[in-house]
Design goal:
globular; alpha/beta; 307 residues; Spore Coat Polysaccharide Biosynthesis Protein SpsA, Chain A; 9 helices
């Protein structure tokens, strides 16, 4: 059986569309576990749940440290009964064969984890906006060594064998949306699996559509959360002794410093002044996000080491 885990908060309309896409799959050996951290459960969702016994819904409003996407996923994992654990987000629409393909992917390949394609949903209707966390690839590939996570996959189309998660652990609650570390809970889990010698399959047949669209300003803000999360994730593993993660971290900071230097040199250009000053502003914010992420990574490296 496949257990599909979805963490959600205050997005009942998107969640409903996501659930409808899963239920529309003809594969029947599945359950859906929804952990809702909304203040109040939507009447729309309550009504829908009455018709679908495979959807198990748990309302866990935010309370102090008991909040964030990764905390919700941890709770869902403890309730999951499937031998395959699949993850998607409440703003995604899964392909009509998604569950069957995930099952076949694990049945036909020796792998512990699987990532699929994430495509933008109806891009023609969003010409001036960007859909984040999308990934296209054409060839099946086995990943056995740590590498930069954006070349592997995203957590909105991710699955693991339950046995593998039992061995490596669940997502870190200090990473992910709503946490102190910000995004990158999927990157940390993937790296942890690879460091534990697990095999990850990039499987293009598995397709999910992402229905989140951001304007230019929103995308810049979103990128800052990615920067902070990546610094927390790669910083954490760097403090644990990973040279690979240290190289990724240094490369990102160097690139930001080079961009800052270039923009500072041209800030007084007559033609580029205003635009370049704006770039400098975002460069500084990006460096601050990296610093915050590094401090989070160091703190949790320290606290976990002392346990």
């Amino acid at each position: 059986m496949i257990s599909v885990l979805i963490a959600t908060k205050e997005r009942p309309d998107s969640l409903l569309v996501c659930l409808q896409s899963i239920v529309s799959n003809q594969f029947t050996q599945y359950e859906v576990i929804v952990i809702d951290q909304s203040n109040v459960v939507s009447a729309l969702i309550k009504q829908y749940l009455k018709k679908h016994h495979r959807i198990h819904f748990y309302h866990l409003p935010n309370r102090g440290r008991e909040r964030g996407k990764s905390y919700a996923l941890q709770q869902g994992l403890m309730k999951a009964k499937g031998e395959i654990i699949a993850f998607t987000d409440d703003d995604c629409i899964v392909d009509k064969k998604w569950l069957k393909i995930l099952w076949q992917g694990f049945a036909q390949n020796k792998c512990d984890g699987l990532f699929g394609q994430v495509l933008p949903y109806q891009p023609a209707q969003h010409a001036d906006e960007t859909c984040p966390c999308t990934m296209r690839f054409a060839k099946k590939e086995f990943v056995r060594q740590p590498r930069y996570h954006v070349s592997i996959g995203y957590g909105n189309n991710m699955a693991f064998r339950k046995q593998a998660l039992d061995e490596i652990g669940s997502p870190k609650t200090w990473l992910g949306p709503g946490s102190i570390g910000s995004n990158a809970e999927d990157a940390e889990l993937t790296l942890r699996a690879l460091f534990a010698k697990k095999i990850i399959l990039r499987y293009p047949k598995s397709i999910v559509y992402h229905n989140r669209w951001l304007n230019a300003q929103e995308m810049k803000e979103q990128q800052l959360s990615y920067t902070q999360g990546e610094a927390a994730c790669y910083g954490y593993f760097s403090f644990l002794g990973s040279n690979f993660c240290k190289q990724i971290l240094i490369r990102g900071i160097k690139a930001n410093l080079q961009n800052l230097k270039r923009n500072l040199l041209s800030v007084f250009s007559f033609n580029k002044g205003k635009r370049t000053r704006n770039n400098v502003y975002w460069n500084f914010r990006s460096l601050l996000a990296s610093a915050r992420g590094l401090s989070v990574g160091f703190w949790f490296f320290l606290t976990e080491s002392l346990k």
